[in-house]
């Protein structure tokens, strides 16, 4: 029959050939009428209902339930909120997951606002002004000036004001009315032309410092950065990391808090392996630790010294206090020292404060 009907006609069977005619197939056909936009009066299929219904009439809602037997992944479209003001105020707190990473930027035992995060917030502001994700907008910063460092506190919030001038693309970041970062920002129409031409033509440019050298230098300065490829090209005075290129930078020395540690005097001396030279226990331990640290770039050192009950060892014979003294002179190394000895075997009051003393067979 369907072959004889026009294409604009919808055929809805109330029962199928070869199958027993049932109420269910009939009601399914009425449901198909709803799907094509009709409004069948299904109330005529039932006896008329007198309202209000009598007490004890069962509810219909328990008969209709959602089927949660299967899970489906659906797309989540998050609309980017567009802002119309070129001035934006952000509040930085340690509880906000968007700014949590900033509190790990510690220099000289002080939490400082990462200067690159200020540029990132300017980038986000431009994305909000254009009503799109900032990561899809190629951006160029010029003439950036980091005026002063800004401290973060885990107890107090920090409020920053970001201002972008649309007429000349200059921007400023202020904290309590004082400028901390300024510069020029613009959207690039062709980001490929903005790249350093020498790097764009050849990836074999001579590097004066590779990633390993840079991270080693940062660790000496108490910066603990990892897993980010960085290259420095001396001939171009440029730093390249992923899609970021920095060049033309100028540095001005600032005052830093002096480290509260005693100066360490070092000397380089050749010590023969089989010349029967006698050295002190402290020198032997220091040489061993320095060789281990030079061969393995360790940031966290764990040392355990075990003292048995039948060992005739006095407090001055322990090696762990010597290790503590040596590692204390290395600010970039964190130590975890443990002494395994019987209780009351040694006076713990004479041991280093950060030394853990445990009982045998208790770890």
TrEMBL record:
It comes from the Eukaryota. GO terms for molecular function: fatty acid synthase activity. GO terms for biological process: fatty acid biosynthetic process. PANTHER family: FATTY ACID SYNTHASE, FATTY ACID SYNTHASE 3. This is Fatty acid synthase.
């Amino acid at each position: 029959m369907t072959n004889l009907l026009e294409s604009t006609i919808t055929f809805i069977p109330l029962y199928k050939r070869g199958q027993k005619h049932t109420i269910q197939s009939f009601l399914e056909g009425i449901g198909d009428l709803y799907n094509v936009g009709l409004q069948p009066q299904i109330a005529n299929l039932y006896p008329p209902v007198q309202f209000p219904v009598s007490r004890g009439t069962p509810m219909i809602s328990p008969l209709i339930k959602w089927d949660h037997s299967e899970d489906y992944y659906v797309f989540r479209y998050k609309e980017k909120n567009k802002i119309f003001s070129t001035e934006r105020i952000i509040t930085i707190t340690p509880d906000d997951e968007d700014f949590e990473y900033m509190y790990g930027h510690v220099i000289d035992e002080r939490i400082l606002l990462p200067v690159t995060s200020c540029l990132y917030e300017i980038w986000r502001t431009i994305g909000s002004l254009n009503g799109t994700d900032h990561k899809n907008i190629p951006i160029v910063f010029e003439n950036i000036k980091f005026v002063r460092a800004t401290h973060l506190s885990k107890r107090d919030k920090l409020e920053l004001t970001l201002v972008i001038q649309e007429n000349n693309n200059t921007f400023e970041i202020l904290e309590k009315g004082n400028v901390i970062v300024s510069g020029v920002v613009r959207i690039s129409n062709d980001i490929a032309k903005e790249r350093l031409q020498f790097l764009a033509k050849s990836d074999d440019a001579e590097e004066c410092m590779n990633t390993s050298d840079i991270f080693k230098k940062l660790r000496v300065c108490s910066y603990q950065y990892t897993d980010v490829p960085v290259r420095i090209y001396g001939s171009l005075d440029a730093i390249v990391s992923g899609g970021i290129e920095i060049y033309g930078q100028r540095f001005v020395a600032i005052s830093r808090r002096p480290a509260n540690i005693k100066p360490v005097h070092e000397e380089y001396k050749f010590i023969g392996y089989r010349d029967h030279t006698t050295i002190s226990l402290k020198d032997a331990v220091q040489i061993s630790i320095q060789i281990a640290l030079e061969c393995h770039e360790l940031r966290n050192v764990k040392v355990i010294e075990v003292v048995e009950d039948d060992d005739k060892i006095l407090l001055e014979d322990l090696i762990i206090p010597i290790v503590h003294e040596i590692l204390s002179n290395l600010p970039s190394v964190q130590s975890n020292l443990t002494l395994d000895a019987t209780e009351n075997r040694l006076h713990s009051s004479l041991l280093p404060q950060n030394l853990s003393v445990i009982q045998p067979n208790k770890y």
